[in-house]
Amino acid sequence: MYSGNLLGFGLAVSSSAFIGSSFIIKKKGLQRAGASGTSARSGGYGYLLEPLWWIGMFTMVVGEFANFIAYIYAPAVLVTPLGALSIIVSAVLAHFLLNEKLKRMGILGCVLCIVGSTVIVLHAPAEHSISSVEEIWDLATQPAFLLYTASALAVVLFLVLYCEPRYGQTNMMVYIGVCSINGSLTVMSVKAIGIAIKLTLEGSSQVARYQTWVFVMVAITCIITQLNYLNKALDTFNTAVVSPIYYAMFTSFTILASAIMFKDWSGQSVSTIISVLCGFMTVLSGTMILHSTREPDPQPVSDLYSALSPQISWIVRANGEIWKHKDDESCPEVVAIIQPDHFK
């Protein structure tokens, strides 16, 4: 393994441990905030006053910082898939702390994530040498990557403006889609910033270059958007479902964006590329197994039965119909009688 890849591997593993823990800590903070005020799923920001949520944020920042350094020394195709380890950490902690049970097939999913990550690490390409931020800018403004960026922004705007008001509370792919697509642009800009910092520390200052600050503004914008929609996803849906799907989509878009911008596959043999792709598919299989073995959050009772009037009894008939019951009416083919106080 290349020395840069080895350092990036160690940092990425540490990052996964911190980030996986942060999901659970933040979830606990969101639950506490929702219990005492407007929840994040309803547009509330009470979690900003919850210390536990801030602890989760600090843990995530530490993990992201380690991830940031990892991107300086290793290609995205190596660092990003190692995020699967954060899913394992998240699933295990959710099992013990959030009572989101991890079943036997979930354990198999964890093993597949580890095996796939190992294959990727062993066959990851070396990082290309870059001498200035202008070189990164040229890569970012090439027609292929500009087309990807324009397509990504169009999809994000569609999800935010059209899909979120209609399907955000029932379909997690809306929130996760925004996070994942933004995430791919975040990684590209963060990698550019990291390389600029590295070059500056080596004596070739990149601070005065306007391209550096463009990448900084893009990174800040994308990170804020990601955090906002990730909070909504975590507060609305089961953590053990959100984490693997978010990882799978985020990793896929990031590898695609990196392949277009940094040309990670340039000069690599066919066998190396196939090995990395097989490792990635193994990781995705593991995340999907984790997803399929997790129980979704139960729907609140008040949402299920809010349409039933509390002033009368309701009759469930054998044909599946629900109708009002009056005291002087007979009730043929009755399966169940639902009293007004049944759902209190």
Q: Could you explain how this protein is built, in words?
A:
- With 344 residues, the chain is mostly helical.
- Helix content is 69%, strand content 4%.
- It has twelve helices and three strands, in the order ααααααααααααβββ.
- It has helices at residues 3-36, 51-73, 76-79, 84-97, 104-123, 133-140, 143-167, 172-201, 210-236, 239-261, 270-292, 301-305, and strands at 313-317, 322-325, 334-338.
- Strands 2-1-3 form a three-stranded antiparallel sheet, with no helix packed on it.
- Helix 10 packs antiparallel against helix 11.
- The protein starts with a helix and ends in a 6-residue tail after the last strand.
Summarize the structure.
By secondary structure, the chain is mainly alpha-helical. The chain has helices at residues 3-36, 51-73, 76-79, 84-97, 104-123, 133-140, 143-167, 172-201, 210-236, 239-261, 270-292, 301-305; strands spanning 313-317, 322-325, 334-338.
Write the layout of secondary structure elements.
Elements: H1 3-36, H2 51-73, H3 76-79, H4 84-97, H5 104-123, H6 133-140, H7 143-167, H8 172-201, H9 210-236, H10 239-261, H11 270-292, H12 301-305, E1 313-317, E2 322-325, E3 334-338
Antiparallel strand pairs: 1-2, 1-3
Helix pairs in contact: 1-2, 1-4, 2-8, 4-5, 4-10, 5-11, 7-8, 8-9, 8-10, 10-11
